[in-house]
Amino acid sequence: MKLFKIALVAVIVLSSVYAKEKFFVVERENSSLATIYKGLKRTSIPNMRNMNHGVVKFKGKDGYVISRDGYVIKFNPETEKITNEYKTSKSAIGFVIGKNYVAVANYDDKSVDILDRDLNPIKKIKTGSKNVGIKIYKDYLVFSQMDNDIISVYKDNKLGKSKPDFTLFKEFKDVGQLPFDAMIKDNNYIAGFFSSNHYGVVDLDTMTFKKIKIYLNEKRKMVLKVPHFGFWSIGGDKVFVPAVGDNKVLVYDNNFKFIKNIDTQGLPVFTSLSPDKKYLAVTYSGKDFPTIQIIDTKTLKIIETFNFNGKVLHVRWSNVDQDLYVSVNDSNTVAVINTKEWFMEREIFNIKKPSGIFIYEDGK
Questions:
Q1: Residues with Cβ < 8 Å from 7, sequence gap 6 or more?
Q2: 42 CB contacts (<8 Å, ≥6 apart)?
Q3: Entry pTM
Q4: Could you tell me if 228 and 271 are in contact, meaning their C-beta atoms sit under 8 angstroms apart?
Q5: Is the dihedral of CA 204, 206, 207, 212 positive or negative?
């Protein structure tokens, strides 16, 4: 029995060592997903609808895509075959995957759709607003109503035991002007706003709300691309936030106390934290679209700057290798940066207008 346990542990260790990353890259103008495996482009999966704002997520052995024109598409990330699709609206902006459901935040028909994992409809929640920042916490589904300045909390009355039954649990009103995205940090739902100089925090254990002031200069520049909070970064004892409309990354501690602003080259769009939490990659909009900068999270200083031949739309750190993958939209390439010695290691060609980069780990 003891030998069996030792052998089982050895198998698990070897499985994790030899687990490979497969990268799925949104081909923005081509209605497709490119796949990168073992450092090379492998295939393109067609018929992914309007991928102008395409997002990919994985749950177990299932892959899901949300398209700009309101389709949710389920596919097998190993066989790379589409297995089902469902159109929730004319325009969808975000989705989350629970144990036994998929929830989609819609723009145009002002609703949130609840589907089962095979994309069969269960319920449509009508809000009278564009809906954004949809997240899951325990048995709660949380999202923001952009037009109504409301954060809504719905609870699954079935407690995840069967087909979900979500009903309104609590609403927070007048939270800020034009909420546009959100993130979950522990038990906190953190929402950002287009037109307010704060972000909002809902404690989902106590169901209380507070505002956290944003420290910016008096002159606020117009941001050219919305910084989605999926690319806020939480690492160790710090939270990094791309400032809306200013050349800064804001740094807070885990209790949302302000630490400092890091001055950046341009208007930051995304911040992406390395797996070991030592480095932060920052992307920009406007004239600085072709640039990314690397911040040391201990010293809070910029240590590297990389310029590319075209707009950088996304970055993704490898969880296996010491590499940072960069989608360079105009040059139809994904660039790979060696993060141990900080140099451009290689380029992966023939990826058409790449934007979002997403990782599926096979062998697990």
A1: none
A2: 22, 35, 36
A3: 0.88
A4: no
A5: negative
Q: What is the pLDDT of residue 281?
A: 96
List Cβ<8 Å contacts ≥24 apart for 48-55: 48/73, 49/73, 49/85, 51/26, 51/27, 51/355, 52/28, 53/93, 54/26, 54/28, 54/355, 54/356, 55/26, 55/94, 55/95, 55/356, 55/358
The alpha helices in the chain, defined as continuous H runs, are 2-18
- Token pair listed for 194: 């287009």
Reported as a single tens digit per residue, the pLDDT across 182-238 is: 888 889 998 888 788 788 999 999 999 999 876 554 454 444 444 455 546 776 788
Q: Which two tokens stand for residue 328?
A: 């360079």
SS3 of 295-311: the string is: EECCCCEEEEEEECCCC
Judge whether residue 343 has pLDDT over 50. Answer: yes
Which tokens sit at 206? 């106590």
Task: Count helices and strands (H / E) in the chain.
Answer: 1, 32
The pLDDT value recorded for residue 5 is 44
What are the C-alpha distances in Å from 201 to residues 31, 122, 156, 333?
36, 29, 22, 38
pLDDT in tens, 285-340: 889 999 999 999 999 999 999 999 999 999 999 999 999 999 999 999 999 999 99
Comparing C-alpha atoms, which of 358, 359, 331 is closest to residue 344?
A: 331
17 to each of 20, 51, 61, how far by Cα in Å? 8, 33, 19
Q: What type of residue sits at position 259?
A: I
Q: Residue 245: pLDDT above 90?
A: no
Interacting residues of 37 by C-beta distance below 8 A, sequence separation 6+:
20, 22, 23
Query: Any bridge partners for residue 360, and if so which?
Result: 22
Return the residue matching tokens 């990354």: 249
Which residue type, as a one-letter code, is found at position 311? K
